[in-house]
Amino acid sequence: MTYCVGLMLNEGMVLLSDTRTNAGLDNISTYRKMFTFEDPGERVIVIMTAGSLSISQTTLARLREAIEDPDATPDTSIMLAPTLLKVADIVGGMLAAVRGEIDEKLSAMQGASCSMIVAGQRKGGAMRMFLIYPEGNYIEATEDAPFLQIGEHKYGKPILDRVVKPSTSLLDAQKAVLLSMDSTLRSNLSVGMPLDLCVIERDACRVTQKRRIEAGDEAFRAMSEAWSVALRDGFSRIKV
After folding, report:
1. Residue 213 belongs to domain spanning
2. Which stretch of DSSP H or E encloses residue 197?
3. 5-34 mean pLDDT
4. Angle at 90 between CA 85 and CA 92, to 5 degrees
5. 28 contacts 192 by C-beta, under 8 angstroms
6. Whole-structure pTM value
7. Is residue 127 situated within a structural domain?
8. Distance of CA 181 to CAs 16, 88, 217, Å?
9. Which of 19, 36, 164, 222 has the greatest count of CB atoms below 10 A from its CB?
10. Is residue 240 part of a domain?
């Protein structure tokens, strides 16, 4: 299991993922779940994955292969697609095709699936963010629902519901996703560090900030402890 979250705000986008892959209690590994494709100033695309590692890795490998293909077209390459909607179509189609192939090969293994968050912007276009389901269909982040989550999302959702709006600043958004992840880390052992954080400012068409947060990171630990103190303090003040 994993946890990935993306916020689409007036000022830009903030994305965060963990790196834990759990194939049983005695088989826990670290794999990157956030992947960046960019032509700085022209186009930026970030993909985060949750679910079957074989499906996500195969899908991403084929997306990269399509980018590098000398015969690539706007219908096959996410770096040539005319809109972010078309990018979502390409990723969704590839994900569905790969899932179908792997399901056929591993018919005895029921339930293998993968979901993805695709976010980005091309020069002259709007920022867009999509949650792509295993079947290849998708939904889009909107002003009414400015964040998307995949993986083990239930523990980190309450704080996002309460504090995140389109007008939230990028700095506060980073705080929100990190505290959302902290809640998940405390409640579910299948989600683990290190964490990958990415910020894309509106109209920059490039990753403007990227950070890997390792276990033992002092800033993250201090934020986690401050949040715990604030929750305990708030709890003690409530009267019934």
Report:
1. 3-234
2. strand 195-201
3. 84
4. 90
5. yes
6. 0.93
7. yes
8. 8, 25, 14
9. 164
10. no
